[in-house]
Specification:
The chain is 43% helix and 6% strand. It is mainly α. The longest helix has 21 residues. InterPro entries: DNA_brk_join_enz (IPR011010), Integrase-like_cat_sf (IPR013762), Integrase_catalytic (IPR002104), Integrase_recombinase_N (IPR010998), Integrase_SAM-like_N (IPR004107), Tyrosine_recombinase_XerCD (IPR050090). This is Tyrosine-type recombinase/integrase.
Length: 402
Amino acid sequence: METGDRYEPYRLVDADGAAVAPVAVFFQELLAAGKAAATVRSYGMDLLRWWRFLQAVEVPWDRATRVDARDFSCWIQLTVKPRATMAKRRPARAVGAPNPETGKTSPGPGYAPSTVAHSETVMRRFYDLHRDAGSGPLLNPFPLDLARRSGAAHAHHNPSEAWAPERTGRYRPTLPRRIPRSIPDEWFNTLFAALPSNRDRATIAFWISSGVRASELIGIRQCDVDPGQQLISVVRKGSRARQQVPASADAFVWLRLYQQELHGLVPRGRTPPVWCTLRRPFQPLTYHGAHRMFERVNATIGADWTLHDLRHSAAARMVRDPALTLTDVAVGPRTRASDHDRDLPRAAPGRGRGRGAGPPRSAGRPTCRAGAAASGNRLRPGRLGRTLRAVFMTITTKHSTR
């Protein structure tokens, strides 16, 4: 459950409503290591499944053995997860069948292999902590398996080098290497044309041109936007470091149109959030609100793209752009080229992809105007010039009043 306390953002409670002490200690260790609240919630969901399983088999957490861990690993791969709410939102089609428009396979009724692997890692770290502290079992129910690979593990290890930490668990499933999937240009134009508001057009334009994560863009404030240099400052998901990221000029134009709509309706200043809800009373836009917005747009065109696909699309555009080098497309500690490996085959889209996606476009100039023209909101040259003058006049006025 969410507490609203920054020092204890989430808490795992039992059937009587009391906090589970060993999990609370584990959460404090995560926060002390600099983990974000979203990480604590993700780990808590894995521990909640494990606690419910132990309650069903009537085994205390500190008496769990590797037999219980083995049974749990079998159960989580075979069970059907509760998804009543999500089932109502998704279009009616066979489970696991590919989308006729995008070619993406719909989620199955059970947990994904990545979820199972994440759960195994969390359980192993949880029991490692309590084993070292002397408050848990001496043997970890989720052990490592050094001999899982074919042949001897680390048979060709260099004796002069240190041993790398072994991360393969005994009950960890093998994960296939997924092909990064990006949105083709013609489909992006269709999707952009279906956006109903300037706020949605601005957010999509920033995502497709900057390549930042969805949660990173949602959290920016008014002081994080620099239209003069075409930069936005985002807080990175992993390191929590603030970094300036370039974006396209079209994205700042759509942002200015959105800000003009909210003029006099929301508080002014440097600290208020940039994105708000469309309905009154205006509240800060959350990740779940943006995700739901993208789901509604997908439903109108029969697609099932995700917000993370926009990040892959930005990486694909930058890799194809001959004017950008690999050092110019850095996203945090990694590069977009490494996230979107050029050696991997490109996922073939569904309908319409056989004709090709057309010539590559620069990531700094996304196809936002093409979508606006299809939706009847085309920016004429005169209107674009007036909008840009309004943007830079506002900046000049702010600097002159300081």
